[in-house]
Amino acid sequence: MSDARKDRAGLASPHRRRLLGQGAALVGGALAGSTARAVAADDANAPPSIPDWMRAPGADVGSEPYGTPSRYERRLIRNIPKNLPQYISASSRTPLQDLDGIITPNGLFYERHHGGIPEIDPSQHRLMIHGLVETPLILSMDEIRRFPSESQIYFLECSGNPGFEAMSGRTASDLVGLVSCSEWTGVRLRTVLEEAGLKSEARWVVAEGADAAAMTRSLPIAKCLDDAMLVYSQNGERLRPQQGYPLRVLLPGYEGNMSVKWLRRLNVTAEPAYSREETSKYTDLMPDGTARQFTFVMEAKSIITRPSGTQRIARGFNEITGLAWSGHGRIRTVEVSVDDGRSWTEAQLQAPVLTRALTRFRLPWTWDGTPTTILSRATDETGYVQPYFADLTAIRGTKSFYHNNAIIPWRIAASGEVTNGFVKA
Amino acid sequence: MSDARKDRAGLASPHRRRLLGQGAALVGGALAGSTARAVAADDANAPPSIPDWMRAPGADVGSEPYGTPSRYERRLIRNIPKNLPQYISASSRTPLQDLDGIITPNGLFYERHHGGIPEIDPSQHRLMIHGLVETPLILSMDEIRRFPSESQIYFLECSGNPGFEAMSGRTASDLVGLVSCSEWTGVRLRTVLEEAGLKSEARWVVAEGADAAAMTRSLPIAKCLDDAMLVYSQNGERLRPQQGYPLRVLLPGYEGNMSVKWLRRLNVTAEPAYSREETSKYTDLMPDGTARQFTFVMEAKSIITRPSGTQRIARGFNEITGLAWSGHGRIRTVEVSVDDGRSWTEAQLQAPVLTRALTRFRLPWTWDGTPTTILSRATDETGYVQPYFADLTAIRGTKSFYHNNAIIPWRIAASGEVTNGFVKA
């Protein structure tokens, strides 16, 4: 037996990894669940047959002045709920299970609107800054773009991702698709507030959107003077209409509805506005009937996106990969369990690990075909550990809706089929 | 005079920055070149007038299952040359002067094709790995996606960006728009080569594309075993057809044509292929008539994107911002001159500064209205400093075409108009 043959049998060369070969012979047969074949010695120097797309010139350069995905990827769209009574106050989700890396392409960023998507003429748009300031200001978009700028990669997440009662989704997107991540460019909010000059009594900044809902949230002044931004660009280009074109505020790590879109007004105040969206909504109902208000930060969370619900895996090598994030800062570790939580292994985090950004984690795994449940658990730089759903409900009851950051279980059947572990098999 | 009044006149509060106020009074008049106004005391608590887009509900959630830019941004497209004799072997450029941050949205990534853009069915696509390997392989896309993955933010740049004779463009895109930057996901090429098993004589990997040009380049084995990747995703979603859907090789920091798109074949060899694209093209003609071959690395370069050609600036505060990159690793410093190279100031680099990625730089500047020329100059982590064009031609003559990384001058007229400093005023 030659060295190479030994190697193929897994007997030699510990440095040679046989990833696709695990659980299946590479030579002379198909991989389990795949069409791979090794090439026989006599045709090893012949190229594979010439496909049709090499036989004639392809499409012209510039045939798409603004490019779109391949027509073979047309299924990769936002996850839009069916049969809602209305769609102007609703949400669509990012298809997390079909995405790689940490950047969400702008066309697939999640949506949550309260009065539909306005179509705003940027030359007519103005931002007013008033209230407890020395010099009230009205700024055009050209003026906002003249301030010193910065670019940061941050996640944005709806506070109801998922709601406490919404744990029965089939896919990763159904469960936590109300999170996305972009490189945002704009001006530090602090810079603009300093231009207006804050009065000493300033404690809150009431942000108002130029949508039909006049979406209004009260932003605490400390956050406004820390990392909050006024954002006009997302992944290089101008904000998309669904993300607040031409201007939004962005509060890194805070619940998404506070990053008011289509921003037209910042009213600096001593007290919060107690707006509709911070009284009747976006509060956390506790078992005793009281409600927690102003629960701003999205706490550490993670989800395995591959393998995940509706996917099917083959025996042998499978990389487990997913996303973790925390509104409190950087992800410190992600642990993965392939035995329903009995043991945990630390996953590899893709560098650079950025504060308040999605973090991609990965763990190599060889599945032997035994049914099991896989889980991921994030710990952030404050030491906070993502809880089980039971731990959350033990404190908050089941009438709560927002700020559900529970560990997500994926059940794997003997067939390799992956299903939501919250749903009884 | 109150403290606030003093401040507005620039007499008090050194901690208060008056960015938009520089060179113009904020209260009681418009800013130079802008429509900004401070709000008079009696209407400071009235919101700005209600725009039309707040008076009725906007578009539904999910009205765009795959989102597109605002219709007010329809001018923001690829920079496509006019009146070429043919477009199947040509290029389009990224509109750098209108983008922010470092991520290029997929719709605006630059193009360079040699036989048009093939439309490939991923279920039919195969990658063959053969030649000096122990086990030749044919892999489907599903199999390639089973290997361990990684995600990296890298720039990609055409080696003719711009050609030596092509320095007369009007915009930043005309000059160096053949560079873009994405988060790429795929498998380390080394992993797949190790799966096949390299023979000891392996020195080159000849990559072939599945386009009508069968684009072919020889990749040095050291790079293939270092950071080279097989890439299937870009900014989260699958590669766009223009960037090699469903699979390309990516050689970080090397000239773009080596990152062969629509990848179908890797032939491991002892010698390079001396293909058309590494003999008749993509070589550097020297003054003595010889040609440098296999000049792989794109050396340190930078360009100011704002202000840049065809833009117009106002007196007062202007942020100077642009992009720098190096195929040799990280950018160490970017210096900016606002006096045609007589003096230089170090710009601020946006963190994180990543290896072989675009790096955003910024410098605050107050323009007093005097005509001048502004420049940027990048230094990479090896200590290499971006040269003047005259320094390049002193060594390489004027018959060279590729690997032009000259310092780009922007001339600013008394009117604030910005034009290409290479073109006589």
UniProtKB/TrEMBL annotation, chains A, B:
GO molecular function, one term: sulfite oxidase activity
Residue span(s) of domain Oxidoreductase molybdopterin-binding: 114-273
Keyword Glycosyltransferase (UniProt): no
PROSITE patterns, per the entry: TAT (PS51318)
Lineage, top ranks: Bacteria, Pseudomonadati, Pseudomonadota, Alphaproteobacteria, Hyphomicrobiales
SUPFAM superfamilies reported for this sequence: E set domains (SSF81296), Oxidoreductase molybdopterin-binding domain (SSF56524)
Known cofactor(s): Mo-molybdopterin
Record's protein name: Sulfoxide reductase catalytic subunit YedY
Moybdenum cofactor oxidoreductase dimerisation domain segment(s): 294-407
BP-aspect Gene Ontology terms: sulfur compound metabolic process
InterPro entries: Ig_E-set, MoCF_OxRdtse_dimer, Mopterin_OxRdtase_euk, OxRdtase_Mopterin-bd_dom, OxRdtase_Mopterin-bd_sf, Sulfite_DH_SoxC, TAT_signal
Entry's EC annotation: 1.8.-.-
This protein's UniProt keywords: Metal-binding, Molybdenum, Oxidoreductase
PANTHER family membership: SULFITE OXIDASE, MITOCHONDRIAL (PTHR19372:SF7), SULFITE REDUCTASE (PTHR19372)
